[in-house]
Amino acid sequence: MPRPDDRKPGQLRPLSFKRKYTGSAPGSVLVKAGRTTVLCTCTVDPKVPEWMAGRGKGWMTAEYGMLPGSTGTRKPRDKAGKIDGRTVEIQRLIGRSLRAVVDLAKLGERTLWIDCDVLEADGGTRTASISGAFVAVVDALTSVKKTLPAGIDEILTDSVAAISVGVVDGEERLDLEYVEDRDAEVDANLVMTGTGTFIEVQASGEEATFTRAQLDALLGLGEAGIRAVTAAQKSALGKAWPF
């Protein structure tokens, strides 16, 4: 069966990063992957959590949420600190993905807060959040670079991007939109650095199994997709690209 938007199996959805989308946060990026739209912001707190105070290291943490109107049926807001399991899983993924490319010892005693708010969800919200968050982090660090104990190119050890892949109707596909993700026999998310090393691979069969050959094909598609996302990040950042 053809893809819903007639893309080729290894083709990304139209991808864009709009920097400085809001005026308050030092890092603010609107990332769009097809219809999926996420606002990623990064703010800099000049202190660290109490459990880290006095160590001379910084910290980075992430929060993720889907706005009520981001899906076809209204999603209730999280209330009174009650966060569903999916949200917890995704925000932990975002946090550890970004921490993998940040030298916290060179950041100094400050916290980078990443907030990813999904405005419209059509598949791949977690991967779009990671890719957009990296761009927001670069802008946030640039805004306070005179106060940092090291250069941005020392604090950031690499770039990071993410993409989804899956098997749909027996075919390996890149960058699944919602209807493909919903019907996929195999669903996977890849997080990688710009230099091509893996940070995380999440893969599972949805009432199905998959072969080593299929996994290898998905990894190959994902690596190509990550290279394309990284190129888009680099283009969006322009002279601010730190590598």
Topology, pairings included?
Elements: E1 15-19, E2 27-33, E3 36-45, E4 59-66, H1 85-99, H2 104-107, E5 111-120, H3 125-143, H4 152-155, E6 160-168, E7 171-174, H5 178-183, E8 186-193, E9 198-205, H6 212-237
Parallel strand pairs: 4-5
Antiparallel strand pairs: 1-2, 2-3, 3-5, 6-7, 6-8, 8-9
Helix pairs in contact: 1-3, 3-6
How would you describe what is shown here?
It is a single chain. The protein is an alpha+beta fold and 243 residues long. Helix content is 30%, strand content 28%. The protein has a 5-stranded mixed β-sheet. Strands 7-6-8-9 form a 4-stranded antiparallel β-sheet, sandwiched between helices. Strand 2 and strand 3 form a beta hairpin. Helix 1 packs across helix 3 and helix 3 runs parallel beside helix 6. The model has no long low-confidence stretch (mean pLDDT 95).
Find the count of extended strands (DSSP E, 2+ residues).
9
Strand content: 25-35%
The value of Rg in angstroms is 18 Å
Query: Which regions are unreliable across 5 or more consecutive residues at pLDDT < 50?
Result: none
Topology as a string of helices (H) and strands (E): EEEEHHEHHEEHEEH
**N→C terminal distance:** 41 Å
Number of helices: 6
Mean pLDDT score, rounded? 95
Biggest β-sheet: strands ordered side by side in the sheet: 1-2-3-5-4
By secondary-structure content and strand pairing, the structural class works out as alpha+beta
- From the spread of the alpha carbons, the general shape counts as globular
Largest β sheet strand count, sense and barrel closure: 5 strands, mixed
Estimate percent helicity: 25-40%
